[in-house]
């Protein structure tokens, strides 16, 4: 078996320290069930469909719930809402779903994972 592909999400350690926040990396588990790939593909299709009837908030809620499950509950909904940097939050969450749906990793993630070896 080849090396298992993983992904990373960065959350602020202490949301109260807004001037010099320390970021903590959370890695996906070594194994992500194929069933989560199915759910990720379905969710991405719903989000991209302008006729889905989902509000933007509903889309974000579903993405958050799926990301929590992708990361095997290493953090919770409140952690994401309070500790994920807002300007990049939606893209960061979508990248996590894309990782499972398509194997996509950002260059930053690739560099970080390489630094661990």
Give an account of the 3D structure.
- By secondary structure, this protein is mostly helical.
- It has one domain (8-115).
- The chain is built from 5 helices and 2 strands; from the N terminus they run ββααααα.
- A two-stranded antiparallel ribbon has the order 1-2.
- Helix 1 runs antiparallel to helix 2 and helix 1 (34-48) packs across helix 4.
- The model has no long low-confidence stretch (mean pLDDT 90).
- This is Phage protein.
- It holds the Pfam family Phage_TAC_19.
- It comes from Macrococcus bovicus.
Outline of the structure:
This protein is mainly α.
User: How many strands in all?
Assistant: 2
The helical percent reads: 40-55%
Ends apart, CA distance between termini:
18 Å
Q: What sort of overall outline do the alpha carbons produce when their principal axes are compared? A: globular
């Amino acid at each position: 078996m080849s090396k298992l592909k993983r992904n990373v999400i960065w959350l602020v350690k202490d949301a109260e320290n807004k001037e010099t926040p320390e970021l903590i990396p959370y890695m996906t588990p070594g194994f992500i069930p194929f069933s989560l790939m199915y759910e990720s593909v379905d969710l991405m299709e719903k989000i991209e469909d302008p006729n889905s009837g989902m509000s933007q908030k509903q889309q974000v809620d579903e993405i958050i719930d799926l990301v929590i499950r992708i990361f095997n509950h290493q953090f919770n909904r409140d952690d994401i809402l309070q500790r994920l940097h807002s300007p990049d939050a939606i893209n960061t969450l979508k990248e996590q779903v894309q990782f499972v749906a398509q194997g996509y990793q950002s260059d930053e993630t690739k560099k970080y994972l390489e630094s661990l070896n």
